[in-house]
Hints:
Helix content is 41%, strand content 4%. By secondary structure, the protein is mainly α. The chain has a two-stranded antiparallel sheet with strand order 1-2. The model has no long low-confidence stretch (mean pLDDT 77).
Amino acid sequence: xxxxxxxxxxxxxxxxxxxxxxxxxxxxxxxxxxxxxxxxxxxxxxxxxxxxxxxxxxxxxxxxxxxxxxxxxxxxxxxxxxxxxxxxxxxxxxxxxxx
Length: 99
C-alpha cells in the first residue's frame, strides 16, 4: 500500500476535483508513523493505493518518496496551470476557468 501523509475521504468537493491532499476532512498521518512497516490509517479507503504486487526492496524508497511529494507537486502544477489560464483569459477578455 502507498499513501499520503494526509488521509482523505474522497467524498468532499476538493477530493472529487483531484486534490485529496487538501481534503476538508483530512487527517495528518505523519505523526502516526507514516513510514512505519505497519500503521492504522484513518480514512484508508480514500488514502491508500494498493500496489499490484509486493514491491522489490530497491523500489520501496522511490515509492516512499513519491507518496511524500507527488501529491504536493501535482497540486502545485495544477494551480500554476489554472493561474496561467486566468491570466491568458484576462488578456484576451475571455471568461476564466472557475476556481
